[in-house]
Design goal:
The complex is a heterodimer of chains A (283) and B (281). Chain A is an alpha/beta fold and 283 residues long. Chain A is built from eleven helices and ten strands. In chain A, a hairpin with a 2-residue loop joins strand 9 and strand 10. Chain A is globular. Chain B has twelve helices and no strands. Chain B has a single domain, classed as MetI-like (MetI-like fold). Classes of the chains: A alpha/beta (283), B mainly alpha (281). Chains A and B meet through helix 4, strand 6 and helix 5 of A and helix 8 and helix 9 of B.
């Protein structure tokens, strides 16, 4: 069974959703749909599967629908059509209480600009998801300390997030996401705001933690080098549609469109830092 | 000239409505007014009952807690001592009591209002001209009916002060909640926070510097209403100013005016530094 599955998922913002969907189905682009209906088509008819334990990277230009795709998984964005399943559960069918429970235990998330609470200490930021689950404060803090040491921040427990470097802040974000022990981790361009060296350290860290704790990861990136280092499979979105999904080798060998080819160029060796035991050969 | 045939007069209808309100519900309003009066009088009795040096000490302590600067605490103590030296200590405490109650009421009403306005674009659109009106409508326009309903004295004065001081609290609360880091708010939702948990644990703490700035402004606006409050029978520094004007006693008026300024400076320094200290943290 796949960890996450999308079945014909669409998201259209605006009043005339039906009309916009029909135009999209007829093959019109985002700009034309916006001009004719005033609706913004964020995502159109995306179907794909993420396997359990997979590192799945979603790529695409700005505005291609990556962020909408990711947020449809934990329903921060409500799809206008289609079905999203996580571990067999239809996320769209959950009641408000069930959705809250699913977000507490089934899925967690890391944000581009960290999304930390500036008025709470590093320790309390990491403990925050447990506090929301009504775990007693002392127990929550104790577990937060364990997770802080796993991301090597044990010495900064009582610092405020604003006093930390951006790389350290994202480690806090990572510890906060992992503390719930949810099997599925969503990452929204988690390392885009970091400098290149810190980014590589963090990539190694995520690979290590993913292996240690057997997570399924869905990550947005627009850095091809990052995809090469991390991804088992890559999905490329273009104007809200799924352009292609597959392993790096598949995409490199048979890019389905000019746009995919543009991303594949970035996978070429020499430019990228390969993960041990992997290769991307130019053909 | 605007043609006379097209003019409409609302005055008789409004007069009739107010008369009916006074006649039918006057007792209810007076009862509510008495409750409010009891609160103001209690605060006033506490402030006037405390020894002067203790009040000065408390104010200096609050200034030091807000800013962690001994100079500021010393300045606050000196300003309040000067009020006493001017012979206006008792009047200053009366004014301070009315102001504190008015500011507390403006905060208690304004913060929830601001949260509601941040939640609903439509409510915000409707509230904006109402808040503008609260700050620009000449106070006597609603003070006269308020006096008819509540009688002379502190209660209508409090009402006028709250109406004038509430808009900045509501506006700045709305601003603070609306501009709270969207990723932090989204993160709370992503980890399963209910809207109420998100409000109390994320949005309000992030909006706190803005809310405090609103309350700080409210204290200043409340202080600017003291002379008007005196005109409808509230005692205090405003009364002194009024007496000075009425008797052409320029010195007396100016002395009371100086005491109002000193009180304003003291409150402003304490609240502003509380805002800044929170923002820096």
């Amino acid at each position: 069974m796949s960890a996450v599955s999308f079945e014909g998922v669409s998201k259209i913002y605006g009043a005339r959703v039906g009309e916009a969907a029909a135009l999209l189905a007829a093959g019109l682009g985002k700009a034309q749909v916006l001009e004719r209906t005033g609706c913004v088509a964020a995502l159109h008819d995306v179907s794909l599967n993420v396997a359990a334990g997979e590192f799945f990277v979603v790529m695409g230009r700005s505005g291609s629908g990556k962020s909408t795709l990711l947020r449809a998984i934990n329903r921060l964005v409500e799809p206008s059509a289609g079905r999203v399943r996580v571990g067999g559960t239809d996320v769209g069918a959950l009641s408000a209480a069930q959705l809250t429970h699913f977000r507490k235990t089934g899925v967690s998330m890391v944000f581009q600009h960290f999304g930390l609470l500036p008025h709470k200490t590093v320790l309390d930021n990491v403990a925050f998801p447990l506090i929301l689950q009504d775990v007693p404060e002392a127990a929550a803090r104790e577990r937060a300390r364990v997770w802080l040491s796993r991301v090597n921040l044990q010495d900064y427990a009582l610092a405020m997030p604003g006093a930390l470097s951006s790389g350290m802040q994202q480690r806090v974000g990572l510890a906060r996401a992992l503390i719930t022990e949810a099997p599925l981790l969503l990452m929204d361009e988690p390392f885009a705001a970091l400098d290149p060296l810190t980014r590589m350290d963090m990539q190694d860290e995520v690979l290590r933690l993913k292996a240690d704790f057997k997570k399924t990861v869905v990550m947005i990136s627009h850095d091809p080098a990052e995809a090469v280092r991390l991804a088992d499979r890559v999905a490329i979105l273009h104007e809200g549609r799924l352009a292609q999904v597959g392993t790096l080798d598949e995409l490199t060998a048979r890019p389905a469109s000019v746009d995919v080819a543009a991303f594949v160029r970035g996978f070429a060796p020499g430019v990228v830092h390969l993960r041990p035991g992997r290769s991307v050969r130019p053909r | 000239m605007f043609p006379e045939a097209y003019t409409v007069s609302f005055a008789p209808a409004v007069n009739a409505a107010i008369d009916a309100l006074v006649a039918n519900y006057g007792d209810g309003f007076r009862l509510a007014g008495r409750g409010v009066l009891a609160v103001i009088v209690a605060v006033e009795q506490v402030l006037r009952g405390l020894p002067w040096w203790l009040v000065i000490g408390l104010a200096a302590g609050a200034a030091y807690a807000a800013a962690r600067r001994p100079v500021l605490a010393f300045g606050v103590a000196a300003a309040l001592t000067l009020v006493g030296v001017l012979g206006l200590w008792d009047q200053a405490m009366q004014t301070l009591a009315l102001m504190l109650v008015a500011t507390a009421a403006a905060a208690l009403l304004g913060v929830p209002l601001g949260v509601a306005l941040a939640r609903s674009d439509r409510a915000s659109l409707i509230a904006r001209p109402v808040l503008d009106a609260m700050q620009t409508l000449p106070s006597f326009v609603y003070l006269v009916p308020a006096m008819m309903l509540f009688g002379l004295g502190k209660v209508p004065a409090l009402l006028a002060t709250v109406i004038y001081a509430l808009p900045p609290v509501a506006r700045l609360t709305e601003l603070g909640v609306r501009t709270a880091d969207p990723e932090a708010v989204e993160a709370a939702a992503a980890f399963g926070a209910t809207p109420r948990q998100t409000l109390w644990q994320v949005e309000l703490p992030l909006a706190l510097p803005s809310i405090m700035a609103g309350i700080s402004q409210a204290t200043m606006l409340a202080l600017s209403m003291v002379v008007l409050a005196a005109m409808i029978g509230a005692r205090g520094l405003g009364e002194e100013v009024l007496l000075g004007i009425q008797r052409l006693d320029v010195g007396r008026g100016l002395t009371a005016g100086l005491a109002i300024v000193l009180l304003a400076v003291v409150l402003d320094r304490i609240t502003q530094n509380a805002v800044r200290a929170r923002a820096a943290r």
